[in-house]
């Protein structure tokens, strides 16, 4: 029995020693896990500082780029629709419209009736989605521009550099400038300058710069500035409602070109 007691004591001692050793090993394991966790936390923090922390800035920059591109794309889309439908009005449907009403009637329809109908559609029929607004606006623009084409019959090729290219240049230069500065005076100044440079170059090489040409060039530049000013004030790419109506109204005034003014010295 004493021998058995001695053996039992030794076994207890061995167990205690083993438990002690296991405890030491466990401490080492826990220490290693903690150290690795600390290193992992440091790595995650470094990754966050280098990458994720900049993510909101990246998203904001991307949003600004998309904003600029959407302004340009939307303007070009509308101008293509307007230019094509003016061609239709000038060369295809003009005889039919001539039977129905005179220039004055077409002007009243395009300046008053169509904008009123468009306003009613936007405000009361709740045209909300971007696709719906594009489609509705393209329809009104098509109707207005066909009427404008009738008013300026056989004048499409002559007026395209003014009515279409002016606003394409403005729409292109605006987001390009917006990417570098948000100063309104600089934006409007560069838009006006680029528009006038284009008109002067066009007049110098192709049309001749008489008084009527310079007058219309100045009017188009002023109208382009008004459109950009409206875009800046209302950030219109977020909601097409009245921006597109106003844009087409400005386009209407510019394309009609105060057609009485253009008629000076020219028999239609």
From TrEMBL:
Keyword Membrane listed? The answer is yes
Q: Report the leader peptide range.
A: none
The name under which this protein is listed is: Uncharacterized protein
Q: Which Pfam families match?
A: ZYG-11_interact (PF05884)
Q: Which organism is it from?
A: Caenorhabditis nigoni
* UniProt entry keywords in alphabetical sequence: Membrane, Transmembrane, Transmembrane helix
Which residues span the membrane?
A: 66-84, 96-122, 134-153, 187-206, 212-232, 244-265
């Amino acid at each position: 029995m004493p021998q058995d007691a001695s053996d039992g004591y030794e076994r207890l001692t061995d167990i205690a020693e083993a438990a002690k050793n296991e405890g030491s090993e466990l401490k080492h394991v826990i220490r290693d896990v903690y150290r690795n966790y600390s290193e992992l936390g440091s790595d995650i923090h470094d990754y966050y500082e280098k990458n994720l922390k900049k993510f909101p800035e990246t998203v904001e920059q991307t949003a600004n780029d998309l904003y600029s591109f959407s302004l340009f794309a939307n303007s070009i889309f509308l101008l293509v629709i307007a230019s094509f439908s003016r061609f239709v009005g000038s060369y295809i449907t003009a005889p039919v419209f001539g039977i129905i009403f005179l220039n004055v009637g077409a002007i009243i329809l395009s300046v008053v009736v169509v904008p009123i109908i468009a306003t009613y559609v936007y405000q009361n029929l709740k045209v909300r989605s971007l696709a719906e607004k594009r489609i509705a606006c393209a329809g009104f623009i098509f109707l207005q521009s066909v009427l404008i084409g009738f008013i300026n019959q056989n004048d499409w090729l002559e007026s395209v550099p003014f009515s279409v290219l002016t606003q394409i240049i403005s729409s292109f230069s605006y987001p390009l400038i917006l990417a570098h500065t948000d100063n309104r005076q600089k934006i409007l100044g560069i838009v006006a300058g680029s528009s006038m440079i284009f008109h002067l170059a066009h007049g110098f090489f192709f049309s001749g710069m008489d008084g009527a040409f310079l007058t219309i060039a100045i009017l188009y530049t002023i109208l382009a500035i008004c459109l950009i000013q409206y875009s800046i004030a209302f950030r219109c790419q977020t909601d097409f409602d009245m921006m597109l109506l106003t844009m087409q109204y400005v386009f209407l005034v510019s394309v009609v070109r105060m057609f009485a003014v253009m008629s000076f010295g020219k028999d239609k």
